[in-house]
């Protein structure tokens, strides 16, 4: 009788695939690698692993995340760094499809990310792979770590939700802060005049020798050549100084305003609107003789027929009573050279509105205005943001996507702005939006329309038609500087593979990600607002002239009333009515036509 077989031993528990310290699946060096003749052993070989790399980056100077030929992108630099770090072989260089490359989110130009996730098959050695990769990357791109994932993992398809944060300055919600030119002119003589934003006029000009938005350092030789040419032009203009216009020959009051060489025509127009019916503006030693400002015309004209004459006009209609009222605010001061200069006497209220930040430290910078993110403002802003929550057709909040395209439907999980953070003396509202996926410019357009409604540039009822397929709206796009990707979530994947694989999460690297935001992302957002006024300059463009669809609801109501009037016309009168579309003019000339 055969002996009984020994009992089977219990199976060993399955070991989870880890991403740190030692890798149990690493192929060791073969013992036979060293020959009998004492030859050198072969270098250890590593297998390709399917991993998810967690990284962060600052979008300054980059044309977005996605690789684009001829442009500097985050993805392009990352692929090259992976090759130089030994994670990608020479045969697969510049061919990401060969190693299953995928990204969890695709950020726009200038947009940053604190928790981006990319996946692929790479040669990794657990102890030093992250360090070798960071050594090949720019300081503003940092890899926090990597996680072993399943062979079918795809960072784009397996990502359930994405959370973005937009840091919006508090003053952006103040209707009186950074008003557009039309609003300033309309407030003249109303008793509650809006103050011109001289700070943004300075920011909008290009200053020689200062690094631009794209991070290009100016060429010293080119700058020296330009300075020589500028000095020659100044000498030529100074020789013609005696040919200036004579103020006495005009018979009216005129003021000589010294203006820097790079002053713009817009500022000249704004100075005319301060109460000078005729201004002789001195520019680089010469004088530009302006024509008298025409009287205001209260007769209603067709904006379409007169669009050519009203578009590029430098003349400003000024009420004579306002000119007399503001006449005392201009003083003539004689300098040491005997030249006359005009100085505006600024009141204390105007000093609170217009502040010159040049030469002042960030700590000593005064507040822009008394406006703050109060409880009432917070409730209204969050009520507007909640209109985006749910499944809607966001074809008006993106580009190159039609309303009939199924991809225009997106699901927003939450959208709230509950906290205020201070960065270098500026208060920012933390607008946090969570959604399954987002289209190109979608978040920036959602913020742009919400700000326009908060500043009373557009009615809140515009959201009743913003998601309709048959309505096309031109929605403003907020600047890209304040937007960054805060986290990519893989909830379903982590729940399914929790027993065999590590979770794809930023939780183990939360401290590193927070440190990266404090070092690169937040300073960049604050610096762009301090130096260039990214949001402040954008606020000046929020008006019905640049965005006629702000008046869509008013035009739609006018069209409905006219349609009702057409139905009430006597049936015996042979009249054909032509109703204009909301995008066109509704004056009496353009609205009705008799045939």
UniProtKB/TrEMBL annotation:
One of its GO terms (biological process) is mRNA processing. InterPro entries: PsdUridine_synth_cat_dom_sf, PsdUridine_synth_TruA, PsdUridine_synth_TruA_a/b_dom, PsdUridine_synth_TruA_C, PUS1/PUS2-like, TruA/RsuA/RluB/E/F_N. Its main location: nucleus. Keywords: Isomerase, mRNA processing, Nucleus, tRNA processing. It is found in: Nucleus. Residues 19-32 have a biased composition (Polar residues). Residues 385-490 form the Pseudouridine synthase I TruA alpha/beta domain. It comes from the Eukaryota. Substrate binds at residue 164. GO terms for molecular function: pseudouridine synthase activity; RNA binding. Residues 213-235 have a biased composition (Basic and acidic residues). Gene3D superfamilies: Pseudouridine synthase I, catalytic domain, C-terminal subdomain (3.30.70.660), Pseudouridine synthase I, catalytic domain, N-terminal subdomain (3.30.70.580). Residues 1-45, 208-260 are annotated as: Disordered. Belongs to the tRNA pseudouridine synthase TruA family. This is Pseudouridine synthase I TruA alpha/beta domain-containing protein. It comes from Oryza rufipogon (Brownbeard rice).
């Amino acid at each position: 009788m055969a002996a009984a077989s020994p009992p089977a031993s219990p199976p060993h528990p399955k070991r989870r695939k880890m991403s740190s310290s030692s890798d149990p699946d690493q192929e060791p060096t073969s013992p036979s690698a060293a020959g009998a003749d004492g030859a050198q052993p072969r270098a250890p070989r590593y297998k390709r692993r399917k991993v998810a790399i967690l990284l962060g980056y600052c979008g300054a100077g980059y044309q977005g995340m996605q690789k684009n030929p001829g442009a500097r992108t985050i993805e392009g630099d990352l692929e090259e760094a992976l090759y130089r770090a030994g994670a990608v072989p020479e045969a697969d260089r510049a061919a990401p499809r060969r190693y299953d490359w995928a990204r969890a989110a695709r950020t726009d130009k200038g947009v940053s990310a604190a928790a981006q996730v990319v996946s692929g098959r790479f040669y990794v050695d657990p102890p030093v792979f992250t360090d070798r990769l960071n050594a090949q990357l720019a300081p503003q791109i940092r890899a926090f770590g990597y996680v072993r994932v399943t062979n079918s993992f795809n960072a784009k398809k397996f990502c359930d939700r994405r959370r973005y944060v937009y840091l919006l300055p508090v003053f952006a919600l103040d209707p009186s802060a950074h008003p557009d030119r039309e609003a300033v002119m309309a407030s003249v003589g109303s008793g509650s005049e809006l103050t011109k934003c001289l700070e943004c006029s300075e920011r909008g000009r290009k200053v020689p020798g200062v690094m631009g938005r794209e991070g290009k350092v100016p060429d010293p030789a080119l700058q020296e050549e330009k300075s020589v040419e500028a000095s020659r032009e100044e000498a030529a203009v100074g020789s013609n100084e005696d040919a200036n216009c004579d103020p006495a020959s005009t018979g009216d009051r005129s003021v000589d305003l010294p203006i820097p060489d790079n002053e713009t025509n817009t500022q000249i127009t704004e100075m005319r609107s301060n109460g000078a019916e005729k201004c002789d503006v001195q520019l680089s030693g010469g004088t530009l003789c302006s024509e008298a400002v025409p009287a205001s015309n209260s007769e209603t004209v067709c904006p379409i027929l007169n669009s050519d004459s009203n578009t590029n006009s430098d003349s400003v209609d000024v009420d004579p009573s306002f000119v007399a009222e503001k006449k005392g605010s201009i003083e003539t001061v004689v300098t040491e050279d005997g030249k006359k200069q005009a100085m505006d006497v600024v009141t204390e209220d105007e000093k609170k509105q217009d502040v010159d930040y040049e030469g002042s430290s960030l700590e000593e910078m005064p507040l822009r205005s008394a406006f703050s993110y109060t409880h009432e403002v917070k409730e209204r802003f969050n009520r507007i943001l909640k209109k985006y929550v749910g499944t809607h057709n966001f074809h008006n909040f993106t580009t190159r996507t039609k309303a009939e395209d199924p991809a225009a439907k997106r699901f927003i999980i939450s959208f709230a702005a509950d906290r205020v953070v201070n960065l270098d003396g500026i208060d920012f509202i933390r607008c946090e939006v969570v959604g399954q996926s987002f289209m190109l410019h979608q978040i920036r357009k959602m913020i742009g329309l919400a700000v326009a409604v908060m500043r009373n540039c557009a009615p809140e009822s515009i959201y009743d038609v913003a998601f309709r397929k048959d309505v096309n709206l031109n929605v403003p796009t907020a600047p890209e500087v304040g937007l960054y990707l805060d986290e990519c979530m893989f909830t379903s994947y982590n729940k399914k593979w929790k027993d065999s694989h590590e979770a794809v999460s930023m939780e183990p690297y939360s401290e590193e990600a927070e440190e990266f935001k404090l070092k690169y992302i937040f300073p960049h957002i604050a610096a762009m607002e301090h130096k260039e006024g990214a949001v402040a300059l954008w606020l000046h463009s929020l008006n019905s002239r640049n965005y006629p669809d702000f008046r869509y609801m008013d035009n739609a109501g006018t069209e409905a009333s006219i349609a009702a009037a057409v139905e009430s016309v006597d049936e015996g009168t042979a009249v054909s009515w032509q109703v204009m579309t909301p995008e066109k003019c509704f004056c009496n000339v353009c609205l009705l036509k008799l045939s």
